[in-house]
Amino acid sequence: MFARHDLVWLSSRGWERVRAAAPLEAVDALDLWRDGGWPAVVRRAETDLLPGEVAVGFALPPRRSAAGARVNGEGKGGKLRVGCRVDLSDVTRRTRALPLVGALDAVPPEWHEALAALEREAAAAGIGLAVYGSVALEALTGQPYLTPASDIDLLLQPLSRAQLMAGLDLLARHAAVLPLDGEVVFADGRAVAWKELRAAFDSAAGTRVLAKGLERIALVTPDELIATLEGQAWLN
């Protein structure tokens, strides 16, 4: 089962389909991506997605003008985003989102010590943390994505209610010194912004949060999401 933020590597035929659907200004960058052997990222399915297809996307490195300034108007962070669909048979390899430990060497020096401390504390508590967005893309491709305004987008992957609450407290504490953002991913693949979920626990009973799944988005109660953790293990 695919999930948002999964990493997928494509066959030659898959890349042909990507290039055919891409805007002209993105083709050269996508060719560099293909030649680098870098993965696409699974995104939320479109309503007309056919059986046997998976929706993937690429957030290409921010472009710079001749003066060195980043080009505006290309989505969040100035990145040109390319979305397409490929056949499942064109996926040659798939992994879950990049573990945080795999991205530590890609972050700026001013983040490294604090982020490594977060990763060590999470690992010691058995709390799964992965990374997506600009930090993951820079780690995976070596291309320049990060700026002083970048967030660190994390995925908290709890196995139980206790792990969820401990993970939320851990993220909130480290957010005092790091620009942390991201989501909690539950056992059924639905994800909620961790800041929104933490706030919901401090709000009145019945508060709903926005849960994003591979196929739909819906408002749900935190208790409904926590119920998915009972007796289930995170599948890698």
Structure description:
The protein is an alpha+beta fold and 236 residues long. It has two domains: 7-95, no CATH class; 98-227, no CATH class. The protein has helices spanning 12-21, 27-36, 109-124, 133-141, 161-174, 194-201, 222-227; strands at 7-10, 40-42, 53-59, 81-87, 91-95, 98-99, 128-132, 152-157, 180-185, 191-193, 209-212, 217-220. The longest helix has 16 residues, at 109-124.
Quick tags:
single chain; 236 residues; alpha+beta; 2 domains; 5-stranded antiparallel β-sheet; 5-stranded mixed β-sheet; 7 helices
User: Uncertain regions: pLDDT < 50 for 5+ in a row?
Assistant: 64-77
Major sheet: arrangement of strands: 4-3-2-1-5
Please state roughly what percent of the residues sit in beta strands, choosing from under 5%, 5-15%, 15-25%, 25-35%, 35-45% or over 45%: 15-25%
N-to-C SSE series?
EHHEEEEEHEHEHEEHEEH
Largest sheet: 5 strands, antiparallel
N-to-C terminal Cα separation, in Å?
Answer: 11 Å
Mean pLDDT value: 90
**Total domain count:** 2
Shape field: globular
Which structural class do the helices and strands define?
alpha+beta
* Extended strand count: 12
Output the radius of gyration.
18 Å
The helical percent reads 25-40%
The number of helical segments is 7
Layout of helices and strands:
Elements: E1 7-10, H1 12-21, H2 27-36, E2 40-42, E3 53-59, E4 81-87, E5 91-95, E6 98-99, H3 109-124, E7 128-132, H4 133-141, E8 152-157, H5 161-174, E9 180-185, E10 191-193, H6 194-201, E11 209-212, E12 217-220, H7 222-227
Parallel strand pairs: 8-9
Antiparallel strand pairs: 1-2, 1-5, 2-3, 3-4, 6-7, 7-8, 9-10, 11-12
